[in-house]
């Protein structure tokens, strides 16, 4: 009978490893290096493309629009990325990581990153690139007090809507630069009735943001398509009536197909400060 005891223990340990996708050493190191190298190759391609010059110009235009109430230029102090996908297994995610590196170089700031899909290879590669992987699913509800760039490539509508809700004030929202699916295209493609019911903040924000489309940075048209840099200019804020910014309920997404992974029920996901 006792002879079977060690076998049981091994099985239990193996089950524990398989259950935890983040177990650090459970991946071949060469895959991590391969992934990092392919991201650097993608960065070279991106930075030698025609669209790269337009991107640099647009980042410059965005900086001039970013002003504080007293007219000073607002400094970008952090970069947050949601919904990157898996760079070790997906070409789009690799090129998007290359753009994230470019944005980090441009702003010279620390970068938080989260996607529930990350594998252990993704996490090791992204850590090698000195990104900070968030442990908690914020559902995009991060409130900011300083200039922050959110890079959210092809994310579910709930993430954009949650981010807008978490910063719904004339002080916080202008501090957010959002690089993600074009809000004006979403508003064009989704009936107003559905937007008003489930994605109220995307609906309200239409016309508030100036959009700079991401030009063709790479030859594949499924990587940065339909994406824009969104920024609010101060003069647009002044056009809104006072009731526009009043406190509004947190979005719930009841009776609709939710496109994002929700936080676990026991984790509080109201505004992340
Ligand atoms: C349509 S995919 C886009 C993937 C990639 N960026 C691309 O363009 O192919 C949406 C991504 O959002 C991620 N996602 C879902 N819920 C999320 C959440 N709560 N926070 C961050 N990312 C989330 C998914 O895991 C998925 O990788």
From TrEMBL:
Positions of the SRR1-like domain: 66-230
GO terms under cellular component: cytoplasm; nucleus
Family: Belongs to the SRR1 family.
Protein's UniProt name: SRR1-like domain-containing protein
Organism: Cherax quadricarinatus
């Amino acid at each position: 009978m006792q002879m079977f005891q060690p076998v049981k223990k091994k099985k239990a340990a193996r089950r524990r490893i398989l259950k935890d996708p983040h177990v650090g050493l459970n991946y071949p190191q060469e895959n991590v290096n391969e992934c990092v190298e392919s991201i650097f190759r993608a960065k070279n391609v991106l930075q030698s493309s025609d669209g790269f010059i337009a991107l640099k110009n647009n980042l410059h235009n965005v900086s001039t629009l970013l002003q504080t109430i007293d007219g000073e230029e607002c400094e970008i102090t952090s970069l947050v990325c949601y919904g990157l996908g898996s760079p070790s297994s997906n070409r789009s995610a690799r090129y998007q990581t290359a753009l994230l590196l470019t944005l980090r170089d441009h702003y010279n700031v620390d970068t938080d990153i989260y996607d529930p899909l990350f594998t252990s290879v993704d996490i090791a590669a992204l850590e090698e690139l000195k990104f900070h992987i968030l442990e908690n699913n914020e559902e995009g509800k991060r409130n900011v007090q300083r200039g922050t760039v959110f890079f959210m490539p092809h994310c579910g509508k709930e993430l954009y809507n949650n981010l807008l809700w978490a910063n719904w004030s004339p002080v916080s929202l202008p501090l957010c630069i959002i690089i993600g699916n074009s809000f004006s295209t979403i508003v064009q493609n989704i009936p107003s009735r559905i937007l008003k019911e489930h994605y109220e903040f995307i609906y309200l924000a239409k016309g508030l943001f100036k959009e700079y489309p991401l030009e063709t940075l790479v030859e594949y048209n499924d990587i940065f398509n339909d994406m824009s840099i969104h920024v609010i200019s101060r003069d647009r804020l002044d056009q809104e009536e006072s009731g526009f910014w009043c406190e509004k309920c947190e979005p719930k997404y009841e009776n609709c197909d939710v496109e994002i992974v929700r936080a676990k029920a026991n984790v509080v996901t109201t505004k992340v400060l």
